[in-house]
Amino acid sequence: MISAGIVGGTGYTGVELLRLLASHPEVRVDCMTSRGAEGTAVADLFPSLRERIDLIFSGMDVDHLSRCDVVFFATPHGVALEMAGALLAADTRVIDLSADFRLPDTALLARWYGLTPPDEAVFKQAVYGLPEVNRKALRCARLVANPGCYPTAIQLGFLPLLEQGLIDPARLIASAASGASGAGRGAKIETLHCEVAENFHAYGATGHRHLPEIQIHLERVSRQRVGLTFVPHLAPMNRGIHATLFGFLREGISEAELNALYAARYVDEPFVQVLPLGQHPATASVRAANTCQLAIFRPQEGDTVVVLAVIDNLVKGAAGQAIQNMNLMFDLPETMGLEALPVTP
Questions:
Q1: Per-residue pLDDT tens for 306-318?
Q2: Strand stretches in the chain, DSSP E
Q3: Semialdehyde dehydrogenase NAD-binding domain spans which residues (predicted)?
Q4: Rounded to a whole number, what is the distance in angstroms from the first to the last CA of the chain?
């Protein structure tokens, strides 16, 4: 049985980790930390976990966490950066759901997040946790950088086209919308019910901090410079991401051939579904599941290809993908603990 700890257990991502791990047959959650809820029973804060998680939130004790086989960080940026080294030294594996290790360049980390790694050797150990690209490396990883939610949907949408050199990598466009849970559980005016309900708006149009993560990892696939225009939006829903992606074709290829290309690329991927021709994915179709649904279109048979990608930002975009990575790290079936079907409605 794998002993797991979660740092930052009171946020949406932390409780999603708990929900999923509570049903994992090979994992026992032994430690949950929270600065604000220390001494509080998990079930008192989250009644949905009553009689499934019998834990009390504890303080940030590295010695206690180091007795776990794996520690998940569901924390604000900067926390894992400071603590990962001590845990790795104690032979505890680390999966970080923040952005601390997603960028391979420390200068970019400083520019976009204002962070500097205390130990660059630890920083360089991180493996980027997109299984559909890095599965082999993840099986040997000790420190995993779990991808962001927008980057997960956008990368899975563009990958087959870039791998085959079918689109111009210098002219990519991503317009993506997320539910309010993507902003975290902390109280903010912009995510109050009255601000989100009956409303839809863009933000970060001049440069969202997920942009360099997406560009860098797409460049590793395309082996060319990637030029990406990325505009995120806040949608009036609790959870989910819908990404509409645009690429410019370098050669003539039919919509049916494009769909077949995607189907072949993801045929062995347990958590990526390519929809039949003409169908449009919806966020409700993947709610609470570790699934990405994709659909491919070539409007008016022109030179533009449109890819639609949907995920649950808290599952495939965060906690579910983290558990998928954990399964790979511990040589477990990749789908273990993640077999639940989406919730409808």
A1: 999 999 999 999 9
A2: 2-7, 27-33, 70-73, 93-96, 127-128, 143-145, 172-178, 201-202, 228-234, 241-248, 272-274, 292-297, 304-311
A3: 3-141
A4: 34
Domains of the chain, first to last: 2-125 (3.40.50.720), 149-313 (3.30.360.10)
As a whole number of angstroms, the distance between CA 326 and CA 323 comes to: 5
Write b or e for each residue in 300-311: b if 16 or more Cβ atoms lie within 10 A of its Cβ, otherwise e: eeeeebbbbbbb
Split at pLDDT 50, 70, 90, the class of 95 is: very high
**Are the CB atoms for 130 and 214 separated by under 8 Å?**
no
- Is residue 155 within 8 A of residue 294, CB to CB? The reply is no
Following CA atoms 231, 236, 239, 245 in sequence, which dihedral angle do they give, to the nearest 10 degrees?
-30
Of the candidates 7, 16, 109, the one whose C-alpha atom is nearest the C-alpha of residue 68 is 7
Which residues partner with 309 through β-bridges? 243, 294
Overall pTM > 0.70: yes
Predicted confidence band of residue 187 (pLDDT cuts 50, 70, 90): low
Which residues are catalytically annotated?
149
β-pairing verdict for 172-178 and 228-234: parallel
Per residue in 251-275, pLDDT tens?
889 999 999 999 999 999 999 999 9
Percent of the residues in the chain that have a pLDDT greater than 70, as a whole number: 99
Measured CA to CA, the distance from residue 328 to residue 326 in angstroms comes to 5
* pLDDT above 90: residue 86: yes
